[in-house]
């Protein structure tokens, strides 16, 4: 149902570098980026999204593809449309509480279980990948890792969406192992962005900027050890990083 237009807040976020590759299911990619930005508070409730034409241009997709992603966000209660005005971000947490059912709770728990299973597998694969990367990395690998770190930092300081650049760093570590099967395994774990809004009830006090800074510092430590060829230290730093990622996902402690 159309609603009266709320007071619009300035859209001071950026969609730069979100196009990613022209992979299948572009609408899902757009949905996941916008979902992540909304539920983490990067795009706050009450914000008016850019027009469909502008968003389609930013993501470099057609308007039908964009509309498919927006439709999913409406179904989740994350945005609402106001006739003659545009699309507005809703309170993600409040929407989940209003809509939550027993089935929603079970679905959220299943998704959390899937995410934890994925992190468990990462704890097996990625520390050893960092170890091998420190042993085998070449100049191109160091350059790729540095570029991923710089893009993450730029996104953090310009209020852009960061999770793609987070993944890019881990992918660069995998590539530096010179083992294509490790790269393929990591791609299968490409940071599950949960599509259940009810999941956010378990992440009430998520603080995007504080935690992004922690992630950045951990990435920098891993990079320093890989660049120096310190394989054992790189392995330990990667394991600590993933353990912290698991804690950050489930913890409401500020500053972690």
Automatic annotation (TrEMBL):
One matching Pfam family: FCD
Gene Ontology MF terms in the entry: DNA binding; DNA-binding transcription factor activity
Record InterPro entries: GntR_C, TF_FadR/GntR_C, Tscrpt_reg_HTH_GntR, WH-like_DNA-bd_sf, WH_DNA-bd_sf
SMART domains in UniProt: FCD, HTH_GNTR
Recorded superkingdom: Bacteria
Keywords for this protein: DNA-binding, Transcription, Transcription regulation
Residues of the HTH gntR-type domain: 24-92
Record's protein name: DNA-binding transcriptional regulator, FadR family
Species of the source: Stappia indica
